[in-house]
Amino acid sequence: MGKSKKAVLHDAGGKKILHPAEADRKKAKQRLRENRAKNRKKRFEAKMLEKDTSLVQAEITEYKELEKAGKLTKWKKDKMDREVAVFGRLKEKVEQNTRKRFEDNAGRSSTTLPRAQLLLA
Q1: Shortest CA distance to 40 belongs to which of 82, 94, 96, 88?
Q2: What element of type H or E holds 9?
Q3: Element (DSSP H or E) covering residue 25
Q4: Using CA of residue 72, residue 77, residue 81, residue 86, what is the dihedral sign?
Q5: Per-residue pLDDT tens for 20-60?
Q6: CA 78 to chain centre
Q7: Using CA atoms, how far apart are residues 113 and 121, in angstroms rounded to an integer?
């Protein structure tokens, strides 16, 4: 037995066109890809906002040193480029969040007793 052929539709000019159902599936798949990419970017930015500025800058300098030494893989180079771009764009927000976390931690530690003192009290 031979292979069953797909139904191929042609327009008035004789060119192949997608079946309408197949075209809908293709569009849905493309929208899914775009949404996933958008969600990845949002998660990466949210994670960047949670990081400490000194840690991010240390990572970037480490990547740049590896690049100078010629030991940076393509994957890490892409990661470095992405981090440099996002950190450059969100630097002020990241610094504000870091300061806010530092102030919250400083305020919290002065008002609460350490765990050892709580157990003794």
Answers
A1: 82
A2: strand 9-10
A3: helix 20-50
A4: negative
A5: 899 899 999 999 999 999 999 999 999 999 888 889 999 99
A6: 12
A7: 10
